[in-house]
Amino acid sequence: AKAPMRVAVTGAAGQICYSLLFRIANGDMLGKDQPVILQLLDITPALPAVNGVVMELEDCAFPLLAGVVISDDPNVAFKDADVAVLVGARPRSKGMERKDLLEANGAIFTVQGKALNDHASRNVKVLVVGNPANTNAYIAMKSAPDLPRENFTAMLRLDYNRAASQIAAKTGKAVDGIEKLTVWGNHSPTMYPDTRFATIGGESVDGMINDQAWTRDTFIPTVGKRGAAIIEARGLSSAASAANAAIDHIHDWILGSNGKWVTMGVPSNGDYGIPADTMYGFPVTTENGTYTIVEGLEIDEFSRSKMDATLAELEEEKAGIAHLLG
Ligand code: NAI
């Protein structure tokens, strides 16, 4: 039998984790032959609720769940972690400005980045889900100078999955046949879902849809505003679909995408005019625990303007937290 992998998850008492933890323990993230030890972090007042979630995990009798650690100390929760999914973040409360939100989360992700730096496995794979996800991932990366920067990623997978689902519905084709779809940039309404290279069964998606107005005026805004639409409908932000995207992201990163393009928020290597280290959604292929940004794609004028707009937002967020990074 395989040795268990240690999966640290923050925000364990929250709504995303109420789906995510059960799927990890069920083997959906790391494989049906991979035992896992969950190392759960939340803030002190939330620990009783985390205990309740752990009681339910026990009651599932998952064969792959080899242990559970609960803590309010990141130095404990990240100890020897092979995977860290950072879901917990400070939600925006009434009267809180964007700047205050950035600041509050900056404080969380500097501490967590340092704890990963000091205690996690040197190969730890970090996925930041908590918003603003790209900038939080950037802060954690910059706070962990002893870990390879490519170990830090932000979640754009929900946006990618939303885009894929919209295309499947529009074309009437199966969602898993979609290849070479990309979502560029920030996990925010400025993101740019790009269908220009996408194919189904080798056929161009843009050619199949053959309606540029739909792509620009319906598809792009629908994907960008999907999070808000879920809140409007449900009264709560997306949770099960966010958990599912986190499962997909880590699953593909570790087990490989078999040549398929998926989208991850990763530190830029300077390609496509995106400044190095900017945590930006790129098309990647994944294999054996590494991801490779798809290179050499042509960027037309429309795409350039969309990619620059989402970059500008990220640069602004970065400027807002620069003082926290010393
Ligand atoms: P939630 O409010 O239900 O749960 C958040 C949990 O994080 C709470 O249990 C809270 O106590 C905990 N927490 C707060 N500060 C913490 C800290 N310093 N350390 C550890 N835990 C801490 O929120 P939900 O719905 O689970 O969402 C979590 C985050 O994920 C939010 O920031 C949300 O905006 C974001 N999100 C990101 C998506 C993406 O695609 N990147 C999609 C959906 C949500």
UniProtKB/TrEMBL annotation:
Substrates-to-products reaction catalysed: (S)-malate + NAD(+) = oxaloacetate + NADH + H(+)
The UniProt record lists the keyword Ribonucleoprotein: no
Key word Oxidoreductase present: yes
Top class in the EC scheme: oxidoreductase
Binding-site residues, NAD(+): 11-17, 42, 105, 112, 129-131
Active site: 187 (proton acceptor)
Domain spans labelled Lactate/malate dehydrogenase N-terminal: 5-152
Any Pfam family matching the protein: Ldh_1_C
Protein name, UniProt field: Malate dehydrogenase
Gene: mdh_2
Free-text function comment from the UniProt entry: Catalyzes the reversible oxidation of malate to oxaloacetate.
Entry's Gene Ontology BP terms: malate metabolic process; tricarboxylic acid cycle
Binding sites annotated in the UniProt record for substrate: 92, 98, 131, 162
Entry similarity comment: Belongs to the LDH/MDH superfamily. MDH type 2 family.
Secretion signal span: none
NCBIfam families according to UniProt: MalateDH-SF1, PRK05442.1
EC number assigned by the record: 1.1.1.37
Start and end residues of each Lactate/malate dehydrogenase C-terminal domain: 157-320
Molecular-function annotations in GO: L-malate dehydrogenase (NAD+) activity
